[in-house]
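Known limitations

Files may contain more than one protein. Parsers should not assume a single record per file. Below, a two-record file is shown to illustrate correct handling: read the sequence, read the token line, then continue until end of file.
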Amino acid sequence: MPIIEMHFLEGRSLEDKARVAEKVTAAVVEALDCSPSTVRILITEHKHGEFYVAGKAGRASDQAAGNMPGQ
């Protein structure tokens, strides 16, 4: 039974989570030739101050764009 663990910054809608779960399930079913009913997906949300990239709090996309405070 494949178990997929995903971590997001808080704020995504239930619709967003359902959409990604559906697409990840489809990809796992295709890659592993297993039944969709065996795929488990765990989503954990984190507050913005609990996520760091290169030692700095924030989203990776913000850092790549130079949008981090103090940059």
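...continuing to the second record:
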Amino acid sequence: MIRTQISLDEREYGLVKKHSGALGISIAEFVRRAVRDALPPSGQAPWMKYAGLVETGDSRSSQSVDELVYGRND
């Protein structure tokens, strides 16, 4: 394991301390889990974590994905 140091403001520290205590884990373990949850699954591109999360209600949205995602239709 590699040791690192982070800085949190008072509000962030208070929330992390509260939530880690409620879970019965250390602040370090809480931060490790938060980092792990934010990273893409091993071997996958980062955007794959969000694939399928866009809902438009339009059954034809897959045909206009560029316009939906980028605001344009190339």
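Parsers that stop after the first record will miss the second one. For reference, the second record is described as follows. The chain has a mean pLDDT of 82.
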